[in-house]
Structures are given as C-alpha cells and as structure tokens.
Amino acid sequence: MGGLQRQIQLTEGLRGHNVTCDNFFTSYDLGRQLLKRKITMLQKDDLVIFHNIIDVSSYNAFVIWREINPSWMPRKRNKRREFLEQLGKTLVTPFTERREHLSICSSCESWPEG
Q: What is the pTM of this model?
C-alpha cells in the first residue's frame, strides 16, 4: 500500500477535524483528498508558529499588566507564571462551564418525565 493510501486509511471515519502531519507526510494530493472530507491538514511548523504567537502575546499582556498594576503581588517571585495561570483559567472557564452545562442538559433530555 502506498503512502497516500495509507494516510487516507488512517483518517477514515474522521469528518470536520484537523490532522497534524510531519513535512515528510504532507503532500498536495493528501491535502486535496482530506478537504473532500472536510478535514484540514496542519503541518508541525504551523503549530510551532502558532505556539510562538501565543507565547509572545501572553508575555506582552504580562508586561502591560505589570506596568498598569505595579503593586500586584509585590513579594511573589514567580509573577509571570501566576499571571499565565490566571490568564489561562480566565480564558478557558467560559468554555468549560458551557461544556458542563451542555452535558448536563443532554443527559437530562433522556430522563423520563415523572
């Protein structure tokens, strides 16, 4: 079995997902085949660039926050780590709460009325 056919076989059953590939496994033909099934293909290089953008953006946010709030956690040595932890929780919380609400509601629908 050829490389392209093997890659297509590995993605059988997926629809509307992203597939991350090494440069070695990335080809134009594979990309076309995946797009027919509404699957996008990301190269690892794209993910590295994305993570670097997140790193730089979060560091910039930290620098701005410290300039605006110089008295924030004055005795703490790991202010950046604390800032990033709070930033992450703040960004994720609405989505986790929505997901919990959706799973609770979907399980309630199957309960018999009593």
A: 0.51
